[in-house]
Write a structure and sequence with these properties.
heterodimer, A: 279 residues, mainly beta, Porin, two-stranded antiparallel ribbon, 3 helices, 14 strands, 6% helix, B: 191 residues, mainly alpha, Globin-like, 2 domains, 9 helices, 47% helix, disordered N terminus
């Protein structure tokens, strides 16, 4: 519906919908545009520098002992500014019983992300100048009492990001690096700050992608994270992904995700599936 | 509108196959037809060269550097694109796509299509190191008055990708060529 409306509005120049396929990225679990786990310096939506773009996504990840479901929407303005909203639902399934929270206890989090493109272009311009964005992720955990109980200092937190992303056409390779200042425990699902470290630390997100065809890309990502909570170790997370642009408006992403240990449970690995609609 | 469409259809039928008309050589007509805008505005009617079919242009300094990219080394890329015949086919196909693509065809209504085809061929052939010189203007000058936006350039890239795909050029090879063209955006996109 939305995309049809935008198609009609195209002549007015409101929604031009002319980004090259896949150059809007997909939606991270936190709602910002990127890979599945790491934020990229791309602006969501299919708009170019005179238009508006929209995207919506839903993602499910089935881990060994938990399920993560996340969905959200994003707006891109003139391929310059991005704002997204996402809701994360982290279902503890039977692990909830073992943790004393009850079967199927679900941690929920609201996330608003903002990005501003400072310089560069993902595709065009000199190869040495990547697209660069700065941003902030505002996260609000809805299970404040529980996350404080496990040692988190806050139930809300703000991450700051600096990202650089380039599609090196000569080799069909995409490189992304993101520097993130964050105090989030398990992305914020277990609150912010902890007994071991209460403050933000610098973390790294890296992605390496290879575009096989206009519609198909494969890649790998790594994302380091703080280890603030004494009761449960937290490590970096990895994924291997394949993204397929079915058409200008729909991108399907499948991935294998290794989240590392979560809340004293064994390392969590699982299958990630995500659908993004954009115009 | 209907009458205009009929005139267009009649013109298309009257044009021998393979001998595309040069838009600049046809008196532009308004929707009602019949208005000779060259006469109305008292400007000289473009006269295509009887041999080449190109409308003569004002002299300018020619140089291969005007192509806007350094050529590939070796003959690998030229071979991948089918040598000069393959590059000619690609340039002609790209010209046919961009001048009919509803997103960007408006940009080319006042363009001498015969010359555009030759310039695309020469530029591609020079960059792919297939043994040509580029005799056109530089990218900034060639696009100065076209008011091209990023979305127009993306549309052209998609048309070029389609033309290369139809010619069976592998995707990675397509991208190697596009990497030579991508830095030109700075000179091509003015809006």
């Amino acid at each position: 519906m939305l995309c049809n409306a935008s198609a009609m509005a195209r002549d007015d120049g409101l929604f031009d919908g002319e980004k090259l396929l896949l150059t809007n990225g997909v939606s991270t679990v936190e709602g910002s545009a990127g890979g599945g786990l790491s934020s990229w310096a791309v602006i969501p939506g299919m708009e170019t520098d005179h238009g508006l773009g929209l995207s919506a996504f839903v993602t499910g990840v089935g881990f060994n002992d938990f399920n993560l479901e996340t969905h959200g929407i994003a707006v891109g303005v003139h391929n310059r500014l991005a704002v997204s909203y996402a809701r994360e639902n982290f279902d503890t399934l039977s692990a909830g019983t073992a943790l004393g929270l009850g079967h199927g206890y679900t941690f929920r989090q609201d996330i608003v992300t903002t990005r501003l493109r400072l310089a560069g272009d993902l595709v065009y311009g000199p190869a040495w100048l990547p697209q660069i964005t700065v941003g902030a992720d505002f996260k609000h955990n809805l299970n404040g009492a529980v996350v404080r109980l496990v040692g988190a200092k806050q139930s809300a937190g703000t991450d700051f990001t600096l990202s650089a992303t380039k599609l090196l056409l000569g080799s069909s390779v995409l490189i992304n690096t993101t520097f993130r200042l964050t105090d989030a425990n398990q992305f914020g699902l277990l609150g912010f700050g902890g007994d071991r470290d209460a403050h933000r630390t610098g973390q790294f997100e890296g992605s390496l992608g290879y575009q096989l065809t206009r519609r198909l890309a494969v890649g790998a990502e790594v994302r380091t994270r703080p280890d603030n909570l004494g009761f449960a170790r937290e490590t970096e997370t990895h994924d291997l992904f394949v993204a397929w642009a079915a058409n200008r408006h729909a991108t399907l992403t499948a991935a294998y995700v290794d989240l590392g240990p979560v809340a004293t449970f064994r390392p969590q690995r699982g299958a990630y599936l995500s659908l993004q609609l954009a115009c | 509108m209907v009458r205009h469409a009929l005139i267009a259809a009649a013109c298309a039928l009257a044009t021998p196959a393979g001998a595309q008309q040069t838009p600049a050589a046809t008196p532009p007509q308004d929707a009602a037809g019949g208005v000779d805008w060259y006469r109305e505005f008292g400007v000289e009617r473009p006269r295509p060269d009887p041999v080449t079919g190109e409308v003569p242009v004002k002299p300018y300094a020619m140089a291969d550097a005007n192509a806007g990219a350094t050529p590939f080394g070796g003959s690998h890329m030229a071979q991948a694109f089918g040598g000069q015949p393959g590059i000619r086919r690609l340039a002609d196909r790209l010209d046919a796509l961009i001048t009919t693509d509803p997103r960007i065809r408006g940009i080319f209504v006042a363009t001498d299509n015969v010359r555009l085809r030759r310039m695309l061929y020469e530029q591609f052939c020079y960059i792919l190191n297939a043994g040509c010189h580029y005799s056109g203007r530089d990218m900034r000058e060639a696009h100065r008055q076209l008011g091209i936006m990023t979305r127009d350039m993306n549309a052209l890239v998609e048309d070029l990708q389609r033309a290369m795909r139809e010619d069976g050029i592998p995707f990675a090879t397509q991208n190697r060529f596009l990497a030579k063209l991508a830095p030109m955006k700075h000179d091509v996109v003015t809006k």
